[in-house]
Write a structure and sequence with these properties.
The complex is a heterodimer of chains A (248) and B (258). Chain A is built from nine helices and no strands. Chain A is mainly alpha-helical. Chain A is elongated. Chain B is an alpha/beta fold. In chain B, helix 6 runs parallel beside helix 7. In chain B, strand 7, helix 6 and strand 8 form a beta-alpha-beta unit. A six-stranded mixed β-sheet of chain B has the order 6-7-8-3-9-10, sandwiched between helices. Chain B has a four-stranded antiparallel β-sheet with strand order 2-1-4-5, covered by helices on one side. The termini of chain B are far apart. The chains are: A mainly alpha (248), B alpha/beta (258). Chains A and B meet through helix 5 of A and helix 2 and helix 3 of B.
Chain lengths: 248, 258
């Protein structure tokens, strides 16, 4: 068990050192990065928006349910929605969702390239296949995922606002006041920092599983599943570590 | 010229290649034949460096590939062209982008020059007008032809083909074989083709090497193969009616001359 762990850690380290080797042609890597921004970033906007708007609405109703006391002001609903989105949902939960969507896509793409010998073709040409295929994904996700965090925050808060209009749990004015009440800007930077780390973890762990896939299409499916599971576990682990480091 | 000297490759205790020595000559189509699982692909992948050999040397025009540093190997690989069994075209690139890829990566050509060169290569394999299609939109034979076009874009000194006509109809297979032979002669390159297709042997085999269970059992020309005195080779060659018929015709001619 311990030997297997060290084997995978060693191979992961070797892969990462290849990924960050000097690119052969910067403009080719730039072009790939632009493609990846579309595939991994822009194509993820839809799912982030849908989930965030509903979660924002649900948090609003749940916070109202938990502060039934007439002594507690209604604007606390806005405070609760803002802080829950900022501290946990828009970074950690969105990262878990992206681990499912982007992680499986990266692992299956690279796994398919491996078993159809496309990676071998790159190696034979003298191209650093790990660098060319993985570095643009890492750059694109580390740049774009924090933007998705910001989007999730905005849309989640908007979801809460719509709930106040439709259900009268608080007046919209109270809700907006709550959103602005005692705001700590470093909560925002904390969420962004976490997302940058999560983006790196999702991309490199998924790429590791895809890049070293062997055998048939069945194995590609398995490596894709492993990518999602391992990415999710590492996101939760690093969430704890980063929270302790930044807020603790 | 590629010289393979006493190479062996072991996978998990099994000797997949055992003390193989062979010389692949320049300007000729060198065929490596053998049953599925005999070690042909491992030999080819060992020659191009996708597998590290456990013993022996591989020399490309007297340059020892096995002792080269990572950088030197990378540089030498720019002289390689390879056609894979499934063509291994990049799925997310169009036909034109696939063929232009080596030029984009390793040359300082202008965009117009790259387009001209890729069009020339596509024309050479009779694939004009398919530039904007994706690999998924092509047939197996078309993919192989694009694979050849990509392999020759940088004017390679060495061309490697792994089962180039597997999964193709006989007509397309012969067309691919002829294309490989024409390109080999036209550019005077050293070509190694892995195959288990006797049609290919008869069509293009300037030199034939027979591998049986990881051991080189026989080498010679396609003219000699039907009269070789090797039990394993004969079992392989005469498994098809084509070889039997050719042999019978040869014998009939000999008898009528006598």
């Amino acid at each position: 068990m311990a030997m297997r762990l060290f084997y995978h850690l060693g191979r992961y380290y070797i892969l990462i050192s290849k990924v960050f080797a000097k690119p052969e042609r910067y403009w080719m890597y730039y072009r790939q990065t632009m493609r990846e921004l579309e595939f991994q970033g822009i194509n993820s906007i839809g799912i982030v928006v849908i989930i965030s708007v509903f979660v924002g609405a649900v948090i609003t109703i749940q916070t109202n349910y938990n502060i039934e006391s007439p002594l507690l002001p209604r604007y606390l609903i806005g405070v609760g929605v803002r802080d829950m989105l900022l501290l946990e949902f828009s970074s950690t939960m969105v990262a878990l969702i992206l681990a499912g969507k982007v992680g499986s896509s990266i692992a299956s793409e690279l796994g398919t390239m491996r078993i159809t010998e496309q990676i071998d073709a790159l190696e034979i040409m003298g191209v650093n296949s790990a660098g060319f295929l993985i570095l643009p994904k890492v750059v694109a996700t580390m740049f774009f995922f924090p933007l998705l965090t910001v989007l999730s925050l905005i849309v989640g808060m908007a979801g809460g606002y719509m709930t106040t209009l439709l259900t009268h749990v608080a007046t919209p004015q109270e809700y907006v006041y709550g959103l602005q009440y005692v705001f700590y800007p470093y909560y925002f930077t904390y969420a962004l920092k976490k997302m940058v780390v999560f983006a790196f973890l999702i991309t490199t762990i998924s790429a590791y599983h895809g890049y070293y896939a062997q055998g048939s299409s069945l194995e590609v499916g398995k490596s894709s599943t492993r990518a999602v599971v391992h990415s999710s576990v590492f996101i939760l682990m690093f969430n704890l570590i980063l929270t302790k480091l930044i807020l603790g | 010229m590629i010289e393979v000297r006493h190479i062996s490759k072991i996978f998990g205790g099994t000797r997949v290649l055992d003390d193989i020595s062979v010389t692949f000559e320049k300007g000729k189509t060198n065929l490596v034949i053998g049953k599925s699982g005999s070690g042909k692909t491992v030999l080819l992948k060992s020659i191009v460096g996708l597998h590290e050999v456990d013993e022996g040397e591989i020399l490309f025009d007297d340059r020892d590939f096995t002792r080269m540093s990572f950088k030197e190997r990378k540089s030498l690989r720019k002289e390689f062209g390879m056609l894979f069994q499934g063509a291994a075209l990049f799925d997310s690139f169009t036909v034109e982008e696939n063929v232009m890829y080596p030029l984009d990566m390793f040359t300082d050509m202008s965009y117009a020059e790259k387009i001209e060169r890729s069009n020339f290569c596509l024309h050479r394999v009779d694939m004009d007008g398919f530039n904007s299609l994706y690999p998924a939109e092509l047939s197996g034979g078309m993919r192989k032809r694009v694979g050849i076009a990509r392999a020759i874009t940088l004017n390679p000194k060495y061309l490697f083909c792994d089962e180039p006509n597997s999964g193709l109809d006989p007509q397309t297979a012969i067309m691919i074989d002829k294309l490989i032979r024409e390109i080999t002669e036209e550019y005077n390159i050293t070509t190694i083709v892995n195959t288990h297709d006797m049609n290919s042997v008869m069509e293009i085999g300037d030199k034939v090497v027979f591998i049986y269970e990881g051991i080189k059992c026989w080498e010679g020309s396609r003219e000699d193969i039907l009269n070789a005195d090797n039990r394993y080779l004969n079992d392989f060659v005469f498994a098809t009616n084509l070889a039997k018929t050719v042999k019978e015709i040869q014998n009939q001619r000999k008898r009528s001359k006598a």
